[in-house]
UniProtKB/TrEMBL annotation:
Signal peptide per UniProt: 1-18
Key words, A-Z: Carbohydrate metabolism, Hydrolase, Magnesium, Metal-binding, Signal
Single GO MF descriptor: hydrolase activity
InterPro entries in the cross-refs: Glyco_hydro/deAcase_b/a-brl, YdjC-like
Protein name in the entry: Polysaccharide deacetylase family protein
Amino acid sequence: MKKLSTIFFLFFVTLSFAQERTLAEKLGYTKTDKLLIIHADDIGLSHSENIATISSMTEGFVNSTSIMMPCAWSTEVGELIKDHPNLDIGVHITLTNEWFNYKWGPMADNVPGLQGPDGYMYPDCASVAKNASPAEVEKEIRAQIEAALRIGIKPTHLDSHMGCIFYGRPEFLHSYLKLAKEFGFPAMVVPEMVESIIKTNPELFKDIDVDNLLVIDQVAIASPTIYDEKGMEGFYSDLFSNLESGITALLIHVAYDDEEMKAVTVRHLYWNSTWRQADYDFFTSEKGRQLIKDNNIKLVTWREIASVN
């Protein structure tokens, strides 16, 4: 009887340990390892964005990107990646259009709630949440994933342009997770989303296997205040020197400060062509590489995370 009890105890401890493993541990790391996804948003936005992003991944140390399929330059990405089939590239679900002179509309048919008075997408997430129905948003998410597949992209994950999926209606997050599961790749989720949206709407998410979501630990991004106070190099240097353990997705935006990007980002003080050039410069620099090495940061990709399932 004592032997049986011992076996049961060991089984219980082993089971508990397995259930408590972090995503980092499932990837083969320890709980204290500092893991980083260096993710360049917005490929597909422009030619400048496209070639800078590919360069930052092949010549620099950016290791992830995601595509804005409604944008005019998205189809070029399908051609550019033919020579780089192993790049980590997801779908940057785009429900907004924030630029003044460069406009796009939804990819799905008959989704009027995603179109502003000018026929293009709204410039902000609040307008999307107010005007778009959950059915329209789900239809648009599906259309963008299918469009990416048609140009030869095999998505490694989903994420959200301007965070509209996360800061809109809870139904938007449900569709995002539902379609990621349907198409067979992870969607970017952090613990705050699980606690504040999923667990507070249990009926809505009852068909989502919440306990087995591939939840990363945190997201980092430069803010306008940081840009003004520290500059890009200062912010990233501090971030790398003080990176927390677990998996961090660092969201950056790379492009060249050329005439095209100046025209795209005209009258925007932030996330403009100068900002994006500064991102490109840091993430192709030897200083940046050395900071990663000096701080024992390990780079991981969404492709690796997807393999956990």
